[in-house]
Amino acid sequence: MSNWEAIFQKWDSFEGLDKDLKTELHTIKDNKHALEDAFYKELTFGTGGMRGVLGAGVNRMNIYTVRKAVNGLANYLLANQVNVRDRGVVIAYDSRNMSKEFAVESAKVLGSYGIKTHIFESLRPTPLLSFAVRYLRTVAGIMITASHNPPEYNGFKVYNETGAQIVPEEANLIIESIQKTKDELTVPFLEKEELEEKGLLNWLGYEIDNAYLERLYHMTKMSEDVHQKEKNLQIVFTPLHGTAYNLVTKGLEQLNFPKVAIVKEQAEPDAMFSTVASPNPEEHQAFSLAIELGKETDADILLGTDPDADRLGVAVKNSAGEYQVLTGNQLGALLLDYILSHTNPQVYQNPRMIKTVVSTELGRAIAESYDVKTLDTLTGFKFIGEKINQFDATGETFIFGFEESYGYLISSFARDKDAVQAAMMATEMAYYWKEQGKTLFEALDVLFERHGYFLEGMSSLTLKGKEGSEQIANIMDAIRSNPLKEIAGIKVEQVENYLTSERMLMAEARKETIDLPQENMMKFILEQNAWVCLRPSGTEPKIKCYYGVCGKDKEDSEAKLTSLKETMDQIISDILEGNE
Predict the structure, then answer these.
(1) What's the CA gap between 362 and 451, in Å, rounded?
(2) How far apart are CA 567 and CA 274, in angstroms?
C-alpha cells in the first residue's frame, strides 16, 4: 500500500469524519486518479497562507486541513508573541463556498488554546480585515478567501499584528509549527457554543466598517468645497459577486458622488460567480456587463473589484469612444500622479513611493518629478506592507504603493492592497480630469508626453507536473549561469540575480548587494530605459517573463516590446531544446 493510500484509509475509517466529506470520498472511491490527487501530498502552506480546491483529502481545502493550519498558527503565536490569548485574532471571510464555516473552524481551534477570536457576522473585504487587525490591536488576522481564483477554490491567508500579510521569515516558522501537527483529523477544538459561553468568540458588527469609512472620508485629495458638493460624474460599479458592495457604495456616497449605477446581476454575493468566466478585474471579460451598463448610462468610469476586494480594475472610454480596461501599470501611474499633484511632499518627512520590481518604471519617473524617492520590492504586496512597517523606525513617509497586478494602497490605515481605497481615489481622479476636459486615457497621454511612452507586457509558459518543474528550474539555471549580455539588440547594463542578492554592473564588471529577500528571479536592466524580468510563478506551473520599454511614441514602444518578447521566447525555446 502506497503512502497516499494509507492516508486515504485513515480518513475513510475515521468514525467522526464530516458527513459531506465522507459522502465525497465514497463518490470517488473507485476513481484511483481522483483519489490519488486528493491524498498524494498535503496542501501547501506558502508565503502568505494556503489556497486549493475544496473537497476531501489532505491536498484539498476542508475543515481538517484548515484546522491543522490554525493549530500550527496558534502554537506559533503562543511561542513568538506576547499576551496572545487576550489580544486574540480577528477573522474575516468572503463570498466563497465554505468561507464562513472555515472562519468558525479557525475560531474553534484557537479557542481550544484559550485564544479569543473576533469574527465578522457577515462577509467582508480583505482590506477591512487588514484594518481590523490594527483597529482591534489583535496579535494576528485570518482571511478566508481565494481572491479571484475559480469557484471551486478557497483559501486561508494570515496577517501579522501590523495588518500586513506575513513575510517569508514568519511563514517559515508557521510552516514548521504546522508540520509538527501529525494528524489533521484529531486537532483539538471547542464547539462554537462553548466559545461563546466562555467569551472566547466575539461577533463583529459594523463598528469596524464605520471606523474604516471615516478614515476613507479623510483620505480624499479634494479641497473641502469640492468635497462637499455633488459631483457630475456617472459611475458604474460591479463587485463581481464579492464583498465590496457596501464599502464602495457608502464610500462614494460620503464623497458626494450620487450618480452610481450598480451592475445588478453581479451585486449579490455568489460563490459560483455565475455571470463571469473568471471573477478577475484584470480580464476584460469580467467587465462585459459593466460595459453594457456603461453604454446605457454614458458612464465616465467603470469600477470592478475582485471577490475579496483587494484588486481594482477600471475601464474608461478610449480615443475611439469604446470602453477599455486600463492596465494595472497605467492605473497605478495615473493614481500616483494625481496623488502627488494634489499633495505637498515637503509636508512629509522623506516621502516614499513603493512598487514591485516588475511594475512600470513610469512610476519612478513620475515620483522623481515630484522629488519623491521610489523603493522597489519583490513581487507580492506583503513586501510593500513590510516596507511601510519599517518607516516608523527609518523616518520615511508612505505616499503610495502599487503592483502591476491591479493592487494599490493609498493610505496606510490598511497594510494590504485595497480596492476600496483605490476605487475612491480613481473616482475623484476621473472627476478631476473630467473638469479639465479629459478622460483618463487622455490624462495618460499627458504623462507619456511628460515622461516618455512607457509600455509593459508579460508572457508566460505553462509547464505542468514534475517534468515541467524541472524544465522551469533548467531555464532559470541556464540564464543564471550564463547571463544575457544583450536582448533584441539592446545592451544589458545591469543583471539583478535575486536568488543570490547580487547586482552586476556590466560596464564596470562590479557587483553590488541587493537589499531584498532572496527569490528565484532574474532581472536585466537594458539601455534605452528597457528591462526584462524572468520569474517562476509561486502559485501556478508557469514561468513568467515581464517586459518594460520606453519609446518616443506608441508605435516605437510597441515595436520594442514585441522584439523583446520574441527574443525571450526564442531564448527559452532554445534552452528547452538543449540549444542554449
Answers:
(1) 7
(2) 40
The helix (run of H) or strand (run of E) holding residue 543 is strand 542-551
Please tell me the distance from the alpha carbon of residue 119 to that of residue 100, in angstroms, as a whole number: 9
Q: Which residues of the chain have pLDDT under 70?
A: 1, 539, 579-580
What type of residue sits at position 266? Q
Residues 446 and 310 in one domain: yes
Antiparallel, parallel or unpaired: β 140-144 and 153-159: antiparallel
- Return the active site residues: 147
Say what the alpha-carbon torsion angle 285, 289, 292, 294 is, to the nearest 10 degrees. Answer: -100
**Cα angle: 375, vertex 335, 526; to 5 degrees:** 45
| 532: Cβ contacts below 8 Å, ≥ 6 apart | 487, 523, 524, 526, 545, 546, 547, 548, 564, 568
Q: Residues 48, 149: one domain?
A: yes
Please give the pLDDT value at position 148: 86
- Do 194 and 276 lie in one domain? The reply is no
Is the CB of residue 530 less than 8 Å from the CB of residue 548? yes
Do 386 and 365 lie in one domain? The reply is: yes
DSSP 8-state secondary structure symbol assigned to residue 54: B
In whole angstroms, give the CA distance from residue 170 to residue 128: 22
Burial class of residue 181 in the structure, from the number of CB atoms within 10 Å of its CB (0-12 exposed, 13-18 middle, 19+ buried) = middle
State the CATH number of the domain containing residue 110: 3.40.120.10
Look at the chain and report how many structural domains it folds into.
3
Spell out where 333-466 has E strands. Answer: 351-356, 373-377, 397-403, 407-409, 453-462
Question: Within a domain: residue 33?
Answer: yes
DSSP per-residue string spanning 113-178: TT--EEEESS---HHHHHHHHHHHT-SEEEEE--TTS-TTEEEEEEE-TTSSBPPHHHHHHHHHHH
Distances (CA, A) of 291 to 232, 297, 315, 324: 19, 10, 8, 9
Are residues 357 and 249 both part of a single domain? yes
**Which of 210, 242, 273 represents a domain boundary (last residue)?**
210
- Are 392 and 403 a contacting pair, CB within 8 Å? no
Between CA 529 and CA 448 the distance in angstroms is 14
Which string of b and e fits 332-348 if b means at least 16 CB within 10 Å? bbbbbbbbbeebebeee
Range of the domain at 59: 3-210
**Residue linked to cell 476621473:** 430
Cα separation, 229 vs 490, in Å, equals 52
Task: Look at residue 29 in the predicted model and tell me its pLDDT.
Answer: 87
Mark which of 418, 451, 484 sits at the end of a domain.
Answer: 451
The H-or-E segment that residue 549 falls in is strand 542-551
Same domain? For 163 and 73 the reply is yes
Asked if 354 contacts 384 with a C-beta cutoff of 8 angstroms, the reply is yes
Q: Which amino acid is at 377?
A: T
Do 412 and 559 lie in one domain? The reply is: no
